[in-house]
Amino acid sequence: MLLHRSTWPEVEAYLQQSDGIIIPIGSTEQHGPTGLIGTDAICAEAIAHGVADRCQAIVGPTINVGMALHHLSFPGSISLRPSTLLQVIVDYLSSLAQHGFRHFYFINGHGGNIATVRAAFAEFYAVAGDRRCPEPDRLRCHLANWFMVPAVTQLARELYGDEEGSHATPSEVALTQFVHPESIKKAPLTAEVNTSHAIYAAADFRRRYPDGRMGSNPALATPEQGQRFYEAAVAALSQSYESFLVSE
């Protein structure tokens, strides 16, 4: 059930059965020469829809622009500042909490969002009473990073070893190929790619990672592998979501 394709009476009826909602969050940023700029949002949204189907849950609108300031030297990348993203999340949650949602389960596709999302949860708990959210002490937020699910990381190691890398990875590219086979991209990739440099400003990132990859070989990706990552993530996060719903 998708919130933006539902009517308000349908949402009201849903809230009689469940107070949980799944919110996909990703990013709009470069993913190397062959990765889609929307990769992080595409992956998070697809997995969120899969979890929702299994758990009969509602899915909120995807937050598809995240904290990606270090990618802004690559054309097409868009970023919110951490302070802006924090306020966006707090406003999302405050709006939904006023209607009776209590359990907010974020499925995240971008490592750069993690610190800000966690800070936004703390801010939300602090201001919920001021935002007129009923029963603020019952509000619960959870961040699930699909790419950190143990079954996903194990599969990535088995398929790609050290060539998985940490950005524009074959695992996430494979998942986008599964979701959007009509948008598979090909481009020449250099044999050597940098890895392990600290992340600072955008210009420094572009200098250290000239084609946007961080230790990865996305040429290894296939749609069939993407389906395996999708199924592994959906299975694990469905169990996690159901456990979260009964958390106190």
TrEMBL record:
Example of a GO MF term: hydrolase activity, acting on carbon-nitrogen (but not peptide) bonds, in linear amides
Keywords carried by this UniProt record: Hydrolase, Metal-binding, Zinc
Pfam families: Creatininase
Presence of keyword ATP-binding: no
Protein family per UniProt: Belongs to the creatininase superfamily.
SUPFAM superfamilies hit by this protein: Creatininase
Cofactor: Zn(2+)
GO biological process, one term: riboflavin biosynthetic process
Name used for this protein in its record: Creatininase family protein
Top-level taxon of origin: Bacteria
Keyword Metal-binding found: yes
UniProt xrefs under Gene3D superfamilies: Creatininase (3.40.50.10310)
